[in-house]
What we know:
alpha/beta; five-stranded parallel β-sheet; 17 helices; 28% helix; 24% strand; binds flavin-adenine dinucleotide
Amino acid sequence: MIQQTNPQSTASRNTETPRRVLIVGGVAGGASCAARLRRLAESIEIVLIDRGPYVSFANCGLPYYVGNVISDESSLLVASREMFHERFNIEVHTDTEATSIDRSAGTITVRDLRTGHTRTERYDALVLSPGAAPIRPPLPGVDLPGVFAVRTIPDSRRIRSWITDHSAKTAVVVGGGFIGLEMVENLIQRELAVTVLEKLPQVMPPLDPEMAAPLMEHLAAKGVQLCLGDGLARIEERDGAGLVVVAESGARLSADLVILAIGVRPETALAKDAGLAIGPRGGIVVDAQMRTTDPRIWAVGDVVEVQDVLTGQETVLPLAGPANRQGRVAAESIAGRATQFRGVQATAVVGVLGLTVASTGASEKGLRRAGVTSFEKVYLHPGHHAGYYPGARQIHLKLVFSVPDGRILGAQAVGFEGVEKRIDVIATAIQFHGTVHDLAEAELCYAPQFGAAKDPVNLAGMLAENVLNGDMPVADWLEIDRTDALLLDVREGDEFSRGHIPKAINLPLSQLRSRYVELPKDREIWVCCAVGQRAYFATRFLTQHGYRSRNLSGGYTTYGALKAAGLAS
Ligand SMILES: Cc1cc2nc3c(=O)[nH]c(=O)nc-3n(C[C@H](O)[C@H](O)[C@H](O)COP(=O)(O)OP(=O)(O)OC[C@H]3O[C@@H](n4cnc5c(N)ncnc54)[C@H](O)[C@@H]3O)c2cc1C
């Protein structure tokens, strides 16, 4: 939890630069902190301690090492012990575990994991960046050989060897989040048949269900078996060889190996034992300078609680970008600078078998959970570049914004090309407290092979503006099964006959001007087309002719996703 003011630390803040800084955890947050600190202060003695055999390795690359996309293990080593020493004069102790902190003495106890010897190390300032450990539920069989989590280089090396040594053909991935899906991609790359067991009814839990629907469709099309809405009960040894994953429903899934990817938990044991404050989400409490409730101890990365800038609530966000930036902030704070971490908005991307899924900010379900109701949303499905240029591919985009001020709250996108670019633009706008008007006005690169004169980001902003200024009232898709409104489909007859929303009537836009008098004036009309554009034209026409009409944003394409997600019948 980020506390903007931390009275304890402010009162007793030592403005003198510390002479000896110990950093526990030498990967994303810890290594960034160490390197930044050296750039700021040559005189400090910096010691980096990690219980693993490496520091500064690319944990985000591990799934691709399993998949052999990265075939050379040494590519995962971003910086070595020698490099830290030679280039930065930073002392690195690997295979060394910090086991306790004595805050009054200003020491930590460490154990050399190769020799078993323990010793104490003195600090003037201590930085904790121990990360988060994969959750291993206390269920029978989770420790059987062939059941893996993915956190370290040795983990991925073991998975690679297991696949080869056991000629593995099948795998069950438990958990359909980022790491689980990256593992799916890479196990398929290794030609294994993969089943995903996921407790929720959707994969990628941060997404709204209808935005996860195209991803689930894609996974199924690529031959991935999805067992959704079903949790892990136990893992058994199979007669002969291999494993059987038994789901809570009783379903039995055979596998030659099992990947547990059901989330991570901050590694707070050291901090907790030392009496540092732990927040409601289970992470270490820090202030905006990443200082814990002890003024001589900082904490960064997956182990801390941070503030979600959109909801204002505390959250834990195990992502590399925030960990790196927090490491830098802590270094600046130790060096006497007043830099502050400004919180997180959960900007993330994952590639799954050719499809890209990205999101930033709040989801609709997250807002509803937080009790926020003053928001609207628009859906759009534009091409990733101009339609007339060959190869345009659809991006499914959802923009959520607050009403009536138009502040951007979040966006999610799924597609094959240009997805992360759009989400990054919207993420940046959110960081500058931007509104949908800023998106409508954003000046972005355009040439036919890269985008459109009205980029999907501009379009999203324009649609949202139309909602805010009343030009295009939108109907709530979640009411589609309950509404008394007349459902009007303005696509052409052949499109309508290929599939339509139950109870919808068809009056194509091309005939609307000559036949609109057939429509009832005493009933609200919800207008649908393929992606929302013709329905917008129809809505404008009907509104100006005295009808009460609303656009079903995103059209029949969005309806398909809602239906697939079980949100419409
Ligand atoms: C497989 C995988 C894929 C990922 N992909 C992405 C991605 O694509 N994008 C993204 O943004 N994020 C990704 N992440 C998350 C990202 O790697 C983490 O958010 C980030 O590494 C956190 O940094 P950290 O410094 O907090 O912890 P870590 O980088 O995990 O480093 C913690 C280090 O501390 C050491 N340690 C722990 N306790 C002790 C102790 N008591 N004594 C000594 N050493 C200790 C650990 O051994 C570890 O080396 C991925 C993570 C994994 C595991």
